[in-house]
Amino acid sequence: MTKKKYIVLIVTVIMISIISLIGATYALLTLTVEGDKKISLTAGILKVDFTDGNYINLANTAPITDNKGLKTTPYTFTITNNGNINAYYHVSLEEDINNTLDNKYLKMKIIGDNGYDSGVVRVSDYGTVEFEIKREETLKPSDKVTYQLWI
């Protein structure tokens, strides 16, 4: 094989690899926005539906008791396994870099229709910036779990 043909072959293989990588990345992560607040995110075989949007806005909130806080409308999201193999997930929160409220003043509770209940806990107990609030769980094929989060 001549040097020129060899270079053309290598360039062709690289281009095919790049196109395949872009296509696979697009198929792996798809975001769908429906209406004002409902957002669906698909990553691989897991789909997450956020009923109230994918962020929590605490602007203009005032301190309230735990009992009153638990009577407010929770943030709800559902995780669905659309594949034919077990999938693993964990739930975490991430603070906005522009956040001016120290999370030591925030409490939260998360419950799942799978029986999970965190109880009322301080957000600062989980750390700062990005913190895992639900450790890794397994979701069987075609199963789904819905969580409600009060903060």
Largest sheet: 7 strands, antiparallel
Radius of gyration computed on alpha carbons? 21 Å
For the largest sheet, list the strands in their spatial order: 1-2-3-4-9-6-7
H/E element sequence: HEEEHEEEEEE
Keywords:
151 residues, alpha+beta, seven-stranded antiparallel sheet, two-stranded antiparallel ribbon, 38% strand, elongated
Task: Explain the overall architecture.
The protein has 151 residues and is of the alpha+beta class. The protein is built from two helices and nine strands. It is elongated and about 80 Å long. It starts with a helix and ends with a strand.
Task: Give a short synopsis of this structure.
With about 150 residues, the chain is α+β, with helices and mostly antiparallel strands. It is built from 2 helices and 9 strands.
SSE blueprint:
Layout: H1 3-28, E1 29-34, E2 38-43, E3 46-50, H2 66-69, E4 75-81, E5 87-94, E6 107-112, E7 121-122, E8 130-139, E9 144-150
Antiparallel strand pairs: 1-2, 2-3, 3-4, 4-9, 5-8, 6-7, 6-9
